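Slide 14.
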Amino acid sequence: MEAVDLSSGEGLTLLHGAGARGDLWQLQVLAFPQAQTPDLAGRDGMGTPTSIAGHIDALRPVLHGAIVLAGHSLGGAIALQYALGRPAGLRGLILIGTGARFPDAEEWPGQPLEEAATLAALTDRSFGPAAAPRLRAKSLALLRALNPRVIRADFQAAAGFDARNRLGGMLLPALVITGSEDRMVEPREAEFLSAHLPRAELVAIEGAGHMVMLEQPHAVNQAIRHFLLQLTD
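Slide 15: predicted structure.
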């Protein structure tokens, strides 16, 4: 990787998940200050994709510049599907709280996402039992700030994703990170990913939930740094 300092986050693009924005990665940006953290489409009030392919089309200018592509949950699905297309220049993939499918995503588009109780339940399910109350409160505030139509479209995109039969075609090195207490995308989904991606490494972070990069940022950043160093060897 000539003239690229991966250790600083140069060439690293981080894609957030459903019901979030790019600033979800603020604790990773502290460790990798040159990383790119774009918002997924729809946060600017324009049209929101309801498919992974639609998100890739909207993000294509950003994705083309990625050397290592990381994604959380829905963002991981976008990263994985993009990588399966074998784009030139992409050399590694990091999948956090992600599966080859999202079996639980179908329940959310039909929920009343305008109601405070629904958003509170979604927030509660996103964190492990040991997560700090301030993290839950901040996540809930971010959800409330988004248009419910954006959240619903995000979950529709996730519900339609299934890459289980294509994983063998992803030949890039991959890091798969899961929280042991993830109730949104259960650890078994990450285990399936790591078992079927030809060059994958699985890191399970004990006690963390779906928002593992917020709950245990040091452990996540350490795993990312180790992976990036391996890519430079």
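Speaker note: The longest helix spans residues 217-232.
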